[in-house]
């Protein structure tokens, strides 16, 4: 028979592993960026890292990310998804976005691991 301490340790380990796996999910890029319209651009930076470039204008900024992808059967070369996100310069909130397929990749097939908001 297991001791009370062993049972508590097993229960704690199970709870920690359940919490750790429930904080993240894999989602397609179009869904991630669509879900972040109206949200702070910092959320996209957490998911995709530093943007490739940022164009600054008087009232808005355009953040550009390139997300490489290697589709099966594609010839060697430059493949992925380019994402342009328009951000309000004052509030730093996402106003809109556009996605461009590069090479043989399609943006809807590119996925990223995202953090799920705790409830």
Distance between the termini: 37 Å
From the spread of the alpha carbons, the general shape counts as globular
Please tell me how large the radius of gyration is: 20 Å
Largest pleated sheet: 4 strands, antiparallel
Percent of residues in beta strands:
25-35%
DSSP E strands, number: 6
Enumerate the strands of the largest sheet in spatial order, edge to edge or round the barrel.
2-3-4-5
How many H/I helices?
3
Q: Order of SSEs, N→C?
A: HEHHEEEEE
Uncertain segments are 12-21
Average pLDDT confidence is: 83
Give the proportion of residues in helices: 25-40%
Question: What are the salient characteristics of this protein?
Answer:
119 residues, alpha+beta, four-stranded antiparallel sheet, 6 strands, 28% helix, 34% strand
Secondary-structure map:
Blueprint: H1 4-22, E1 24-28, H2 29-35, H3 42-48, E2 53-56, E3 60-68, E4 80-88, E5 94-102, E6 111-115
Antiparallel strand pairs: 1-6, 2-3, 3-4, 4-5
Descriptive account of the structure:
It is a single chain. This protein is α+β, with helices and mostly antiparallel strands and about 120 residues long. It has one domain (about 25-115). Helix content is about 30%, strand content about 35%. The protein is built from 3 helices and 6 strands. The strands form 2 sheets. Strands 2-3-4-5 form a 4-stranded antiparallel β-sheet, covered by helices on one side. Strands 1-6 form a two-stranded antiparallel sheet. Strand 4 and strand 5 (about 95-100) form a beta hairpin. It is globular and about 45 Å long. The relative contact order is 0.22.
């Amino acid at each position: 028979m297991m001791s009370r301490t062993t049972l508590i340790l097993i229960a704690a380990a199970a709870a920690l592993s359940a919490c750790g796996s429930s904080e993240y999910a894999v989602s397609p890029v179009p869904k991630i960026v669509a879900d972040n319209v109206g949200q702070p651009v910092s959320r996209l930076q957490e998911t995709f890292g530093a943007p490739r470039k940022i164009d600054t204008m008087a009232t808005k900024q355009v953040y550009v990310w390139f997300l490489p992808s290697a589709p099966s059967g594609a010839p060697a070369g430059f493949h992925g998804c380019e994402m342009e996100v328009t951000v309000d310069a004052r509030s730093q909130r996402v106003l809109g976005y556009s996605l461009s397929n590069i090479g043989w990749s399609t943006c809807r097939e590119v996925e990223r691991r995202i953090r799920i908001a705790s409830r």
